Amino acid sequence: MIKITVSASKKYDVIMEQNALNKAAELLSQAEIKSDRKLCIITDKTVNSFYGKESGILWQNLSQAGFRLYKYVFEGGESNKTMSTVTAILDYLADNKFSRSDALIALGGGIVGDVTGFSAASFLRGIDYIQIPTTLLATVDSSVGGKTGVNLKAGKNLAGAFWQPSLVIFDPQVLQSLPQHMILDGIAETIKAGFINDKTIIDEAENNISIGDNRFLTQLAAKAVEVKRKVVEEDERDNGSRQLLNFGHTLAHAIEKCSNYRISHGHAVAKGMAIVSAAADEMAWTSVPCAGKILEILKKFNFPLDCPYSPSQLTEAALQDKKIRGNKITLVIPESIGKCRLKTIATDDLEEFITCGMDALKGM
């Protein structure tokens, strides 16, 4: 078992253990979530068919421990990561007389986790929730750190709240149900964490690209979560160093929006990291060239790095990003392998920056 303790506004553990779904009640008890509570499992239709059924190991384990279980299932996908989904969940909780002593379980990927977390933060001004991520991406990214939210028409994650979970449970066996492209989504985020603050992640990813090895993926995930833990504990509210976790994300969110979310988050992050690192090298903003190493690793995992959108299209989408403050935007720039820094530029210079990166990639 791997246990990582996050000491933010709420202290909680991230548990990574094979067959953890079959001992969820025990793990909840250790986190002081007692079996006299109501629990509402919130999930999407795809994940429900794998892990949310009443006959499944998670439901059976919790119900046998005495928890009173409810379930809310919604359609998956970014198009349903909306306020209307949150409102429907809140109505369901109210109709079933949930109280502040009860809790929610986010069972699924990042969309389920974000929606559930925002619902938990909103219902009765805040109730407990547990993250049980079923994708590698959610495990290393959205399940830890307390950022919750939904999309608005103008852009991604523009409505939300900081609300830390009470526990995070990752069972590596869930990776067996994921297609390769979804594993790659998570690997992109672990590579991001490595370039931010842990060169050993880069070394391990470089020397072992076996995406079918659950032990290897769990070790990478634990290292990535450890990077996130350090940053979240230092800057929980995202006013300073936590912005380092956005390496590649300003452009990734723009790419996702331009594609109407047909390009997945992890694949968009890979493209975003490539463009940003190429531009940073070209503009001599790095201590040592970084783009070559980033491209080398991403190509080893066969990430498609071409971007089908123009700098002007990406700029227009990026200028609606929540990270913009006034006429400034803060970018995350790789300074060396395993170290990034923040650099604020004028929004008027963003298109030039993106153009520089995309042009540089053509010659690499």
UniProtKB/TrEMBL annotation:
<dbReference type="GO" id="GO:0009423">
    <property type="term" value="P:chorismate biosynthetic process"/>
</dbReference>
<keyword id="KW-0479">Metal-binding</keyword>
<dbReference type="Pfam" id="PF24621">
    <property type="entry name" value="DHQS_C"/>
</dbReference>
<keyword id="KW-0170">Cobalt</keyword>
<feature type="binding site">
    <location>
        <position position="265"/>
    </location>
    <ligand>
        <name>Zn(2+)</name>
    </ligand>
</feature>
<keyword id="KW-0520">NAD</keyword>
<keyword id="KW-0862">Zinc</keyword>
<feature type="binding site">
    <location>
        <position position="156"/>
    </location>
    <ligand>
        <name>NAD(+)</name>
    </ligand>
</feature>
<feature type="binding site">
    <location>
        <position position="189"/>
    </location>
    <ligand>
        <name>Zn(2+)</name>
    </ligand>
</feature>
<keyword id="KW-0028">Amino-acid biosynthesis</keyword>
<dbReference type="GO" id="GO:0009073">
    <property type="term" value="P:aromatic amino acid family biosynthetic process"/>
</dbReference>
<keyword id="KW-0547">Nucleotide-binding</keyword>
<dbReference type="GO" id="GO:0005737">
    <property type="term" value="C:cytoplasm"/>
</dbReference>
<dbReference type="GO" id="GO:0003856">
    <property type="term" value="F:3-dehydroquinate synthase activity"/>
</dbReference>
<comment type="pathway">
    <text>Metabolic intermediate biosynthesis; chorismate biosynthesis; chorismate from D-erythrose 4-phosphate and phosphoenolpyruvate: step 2/7.</text>
</comment>
<feature type="binding site">
    <location>
        <position position="249"/>
    </location>
    <ligand>
        <name>Zn(2+)</name>
    </ligand>
</feature>
<dbReference type="GO" id="GO:0046872">
    <property type="term" value="F:metal ion binding"/>
</dbReference>
<dbReference type="GO" id="GO:0008652">
    <property type="term" value="P:amino acid biosynthetic process"/>
</dbReference>
<comment type="function">
    <text>Catalyzes the conversion of 3-deoxy-D-arabino-heptulosonate 7-phosphate (DAHP) to dehydroquinate (DHQ).</text>
</comment>
<protein>
    <recommendedName>
        <fullName>3-dehydroquinate synthase</fullName>
        <ecNumber>4.2.3.4</ecNumber>
    </recommendedName>
</protein>
<keyword id="KW-0456">Lyase</keyword>
<dbReference type="InterPro" id="IPR030960">
    <property type="entry name" value="DHQS/DOIS_N"/>
</dbReference>
<feature type="binding site">
    <location>
        <position position="147"/>
    </location>
    <ligand>
        <name>NAD(+)</name>
    </ligand>
</feature>
<feature type="binding site">
    <location>
        <begin position="134"/>
        <end position="135"/>
    </location>
    <ligand>
        <name>NAD(+)</name>
    </ligand>
</feature>
<keyword id="KW-0963">Cytoplasm</keyword>
<feature type="domain" description="3-dehydroquinate synthase N-terminal">
    <location>
        <begin position="72"/>
        <end position="183"/>
    </location>
</feature>
<dbReference type="Pfam" id="PF01761">
    <property type="entry name" value="DHQ_synthase"/>
</dbReference>
<feature type="domain" description="3-dehydroquinate synthase C-terminal">
    <location>
        <begin position="186"/>
        <end position="323"/>
    </location>
</feature>
<dbReference type="InterPro" id="IPR056179">
    <property type="entry name" value="DHQS_C"/>
</dbReference>
<keyword id="KW-0057">Aromatic amino acid biosynthesis</keyword>
<dbReference type="InterPro" id="IPR016037">
    <property type="entry name" value="DHQ_synth_AroB"/>
</dbReference>
<comment type="similarity">
    <text>Belongs to the sugar phosphate cyclases superfamily. Dehydroquinate synthase family.</text>
</comment>
<dbReference type="InterPro" id="IPR050071">
    <property type="entry name" value="Dehydroquinate_synthase"/>
</dbReference>
<dbReference type="InterPro" id="IPR030963">
    <property type="entry name" value="DHQ_synth_fam"/>
</dbReference>
<dbReference type="GO" id="GO:0000166">
    <property type="term" value="F:nucleotide binding"/>
</dbReference>
